[in-house]
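Hi everyone, sorry if this is the wrong subforum. Our group has a chain we'd like a structural model of before ordering constructs, and none of us has done structure prediction before. Sequence below.
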Amino acid sequence: MLELSSNTIKALGIFGRLSKGQEDYFDSLETEYSKKPNKSLGYDIFRHLTLTFIHDASVSDIREELELLKDLKKFLPVRLKAKRAFVKDEVTMPGAEHIAIEFELDQTGELVEFVKGRAGDKNTVATWYTKVVWFVPTKNQQKVIDELLDFKELVFSNFYLVANKQNDENTIYTTNSFFR
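Answer:
Right subforum, don't worry. Here is the predicted structure as tokens:
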């Protein structure tokens, strides 16, 4: 039986997902330089570009997000010129740091405005970076940044609608799934 006392999801959002080749590349850097915590602690999320984020989402929010997800196809792939790699703190785990790639926010301007027109200011997120190598100890941070000196472009090949956590298990649907 479905739950009778609730009609909300703790968190819901649409996130850009990197191309498989780029995910593989960043996975290889994590294998070499990262000290990721055990997956049971909840840090098994995919690298992402946040577009929407809704706390305590309703069932109708899911429908609206699915409609938006489908209409985002025209923006794929999203190609963002890399500006620089830098160290980014993990706000949910004090002391943990990641390597992120910065890009000019105006590169996502049209995409963000489209999302804002559909999801509203409150639910739309405009980010200027993507964390690409997670949980990098201080002694390895400059090595990863040096490895990324020649990295030119982030390529997001799909958008994912997820509930509660940015991972495959919590994915509701993807933009590319609409067009198979």
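For your construct planning: The mean pLDDT is 93. The radius of gyration is 17 Å.
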